[in-house]
Task: inverse folding
């Protein structure tokens, strides 16, 4: 595996936005990692215990007498506060656990406000997305926020953040709110209504004149002015502008102004970027600057040690915003502005001894050529990045050739205009679930302009560079290492005389010749071979959040066969459950064609003695003929003792010319339960019975009505017993009324 030393990064970014990158290096202490894992497991155990206790205490509170409610209320408040603090500690380290232990929607709706304000809320919000990068020389952090009116929520994804979203995208978010944070699955963030939601199409505002406003600011306790306005103007509208003109093939350029210095009414002891931006724009407006005239805002200030980054920026945005922490250089300004244009970092894929393998790691700043890659570099962004900006393969921009058949193709030098293609593009794969397309990009670099630094690299001078990129995911792009046996990324190019073969496609890429005027590349497609890889699986439940001890809960398991060029494969399905539990699939072995998916049911039965709490159900999927290809996952089963019912008639007494209405309210752990089946048994004064059924609505209510008959219905006391059932969780209650 390539030896790359880079730091892990930590970002403290909330409403008062503080960035910090912690340099821990590659050699992380093993004992510390073990200790962190143990602490995480303990937090999981603690929050599950508190959740169970809170639900049970709430049931006692709802059923308790007025006298009992006094002390139960105090205990509920204490439990809710402890659990709130525990959830807060899990936001960064384990957001998935918050979703696993989240209380049902509507939980505690009838509780006092001081208790409700300390429990999480299920939210469904629409607003604008804000995507922020904090970039250091050795590490970075990507954050997402949702802006709704005057509120701003940090978003924390239980799995992985959606790829390629841009700032100002209109999105709808469904998740669990804890304080000013929202935890969600990536598939519950809907950006389908936004016209510029992802980097799939050409990012907006990337052509022509780019009006940039640079505001130089300092602080009440740090009034140094490390640069003059002339120095900044020369760099931004001279050097950086020249970089953008060259990189865009003269299609995009920078113009604008530099104002300052403004001393902001704040301390530089912390890294509050939101405040910096707000105060800086206020100062500029007060000085007569028209902010609406600019599409890119840059806030530059003397080095703040509290900011662990060199530069930070929104990804896209109108206007985009960038923060420069003491580094007035082409690498920093050009890098952050490219984020503002809508680009993500230029990554590399490290697969050990293979160019592409089954076990690979991502190097965030891994690209050894371009300005969004390894620290210190100022080279052109690769072809997939330029295509997203429209600088290649769009309108009158230089072309990229999509290769679909075997042949020999010509490439012009990448850096300068020319009549031939700037890159080749070959389809690698299509995700059968999402439809996302992975492409190979092949480009030919020369030491021209801002790529002059490659002149001393014989590998780059004698070959072509190969990347992969996933459309529409702007973040999912990788430099491939064509000499993986070495420990360096300086020899990543595929040189003349060597070939790269993708066995899944039986695709072979071979550079035939290179010169200062161009390169020729052979692309050959052979008969497709069978290539096996790990399947993928998703596990979901059709039941409500709570189930009773001794009941059976059904989960849906979806399995996708990711093999290519192969016949159908059989997959063995296995479930692991706690001791004394039972689990079984509709079919423990399924046959799936390559690229296809199937869904089966998993039935899980808990023992009748299982106490209330949260239980893990694990699932493993394994290729029957090649057991090293597998996938695994888990889901949480929540056990609740019973349903709580309250039942009452709309009147205490009726005449025999009226209609009685009996309402049953069903809840679990204090939360209204929808979809529960309720059976009503009414016993008349003479002992005869009348039955009725209903299903609870969203408010947990089910209603039974009976119209009296003067000839058949006796005078006297009537009793109604209501019994509720939801997935084996039961409860009952009784009421009575009189008929006169």
Result:
């Amino acid at each position: 595996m390539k030896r790359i030393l880079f730091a892990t990064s930590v970002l403290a970014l909330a409403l008062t936005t503080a960035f910090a990158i912690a340099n821990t290096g590659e050699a992380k202490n093993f004992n510390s990692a073990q200790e962190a894992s143990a602490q995480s497991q303990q937090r999981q155990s603690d929050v599950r215990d508190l959740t169970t206790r809170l639900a049970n205490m709430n049931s006692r509170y709802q059923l308790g007498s007025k006298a009992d409610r006094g002390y139960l209320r105090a205990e509920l408040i204490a439990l809710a506060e402890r659990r709130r603090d525990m959830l807060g500690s899990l936001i960064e380290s384990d957001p998935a656990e918050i979703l696993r232990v989240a209380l049902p929607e509507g939980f505690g709706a009838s509780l006092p406000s001081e208790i409700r304000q300390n429990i999480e809320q299920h939210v469904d919000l629409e607003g604008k997305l804000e995507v922020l990068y904090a970039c250091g020389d050795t590490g970075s952090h990507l954050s997402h926020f949702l802006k709704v009116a005057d509120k701003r929520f940090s978003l924390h994804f239980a799995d992985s953040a959606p790829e390629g979203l841009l700032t100002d995208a209109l999105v709808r978010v469904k998740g669990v709110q804890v304080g000013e944070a929202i935890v969600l699955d990536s598939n519950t963030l809907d950006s389908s209504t936004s016209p510029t939601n992802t980097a799939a199409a050409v990012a907006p505002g990337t052509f022509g004149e780019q009006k940039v406003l640079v505001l130089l600011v300092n602080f009440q306790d740090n009034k140094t002015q490390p640069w003059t306005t002339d120095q900044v103007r020369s760099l931004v509208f001279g050097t950086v502008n020249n970089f953008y003109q060259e990189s865009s093939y003269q299609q995009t350029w920078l113009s604008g102004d530099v104002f300052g210095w403004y001393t902001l009414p704040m301390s530089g002891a912390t890294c509050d970027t939101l405040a910096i931006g707000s105060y800086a724009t206020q100062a500029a407006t007060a000085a007569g600057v028209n902010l609406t005239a600019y599409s890119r805002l840059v806030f530059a200030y003397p080095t703040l040690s509290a900011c662990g980054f060199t530069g930070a920026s929104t990804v896209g945005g109108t206007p985009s915003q960038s923060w420069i922490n003491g580094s007035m250089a082409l690498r920093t300004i050009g890098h952050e502005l490219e984020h503002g244009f809508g680009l993500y970092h230029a990554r590399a894929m490290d697969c050990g001894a293979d160019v592409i393998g089954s076990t690979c790691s991502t190097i965030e700043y891994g690209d050894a050529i371009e300005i969004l890659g390894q620290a210190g570099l100022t080279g052109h962004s690769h072809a997939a990045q330029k295509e997203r900006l429209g600088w290649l393969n769009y309108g009158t921009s230089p072309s990229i050739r999509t290769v679909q058949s075997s042949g020999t193709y010509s490439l012009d030098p990448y850096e300068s205009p020319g009549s031939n293609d700037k890159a080749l593009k070959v389809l690698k794969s299509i995700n059968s679930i999402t439809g996302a397309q992975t492409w190979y990009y092949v480009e030919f670099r020369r030491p021209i302009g801002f790529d002059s630094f490659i002149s001393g690299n014989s590998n780059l001078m004698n070959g072509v560079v190969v990347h992969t990129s996933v459309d529409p995911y702007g973040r999912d792009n990788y430099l491939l290492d064509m000499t993986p046996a070495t420990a360096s990324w300086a020899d990543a190019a595929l040189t003349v005389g060597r070939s790269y073969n993708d066995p899944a496609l039986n695709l072979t890429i071979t550079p035939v010749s290179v010169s200062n005027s161009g390169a020729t590349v052979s692309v050959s497609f052979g008969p497709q071979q069978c290539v096996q890889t790990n399947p993928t699986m998703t596990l979901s439940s059709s039941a409500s959040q709570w189930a009773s001890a001794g009941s059976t809960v059904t989960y849906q398991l979806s399995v996708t066969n990711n093999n290519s060029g192969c016949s159908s494969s059989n997959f063995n399905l296995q479930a692991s459950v706690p001791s004394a539990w039972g689990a079984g699939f509709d079919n423990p072995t399924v046959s799936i064609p390559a690229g296809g998916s199937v869904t089966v049911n998993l039935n899980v039965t808990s023992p009748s003695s299982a106490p209330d709490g949260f239980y893990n159900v694990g699932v493993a999927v394994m290729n029957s003929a090649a057991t090293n290809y597998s996938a695994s996952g888990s889901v949480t089963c929540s056990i609740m003792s019973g349903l709580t019912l309250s039942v009452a008639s709309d009147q205490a007494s009726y005449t025999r010319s009226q209609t009685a209405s009996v309402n049953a309210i069903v809840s679990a752990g204090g939360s209204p339960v929808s979809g529960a089946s309720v059976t009503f048994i009414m016993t008349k004064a003479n002992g005869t019975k009348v039955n009725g059924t209903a299903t609870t609505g969203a408010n947990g209510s089910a209603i039974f009505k009976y119209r009296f008959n003067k000839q058949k219905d006796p005078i006297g006391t009537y009793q109604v017993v209501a019994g509720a059932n939801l997935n084996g969780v039961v409860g009952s209650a009784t009421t009575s009324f009189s008929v006169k």
The mean pLDDT is 88. The chain has five domains: 10-190, 208-341, 347-525, 536-639, 644-739. The longest strand covers residues 121-135.
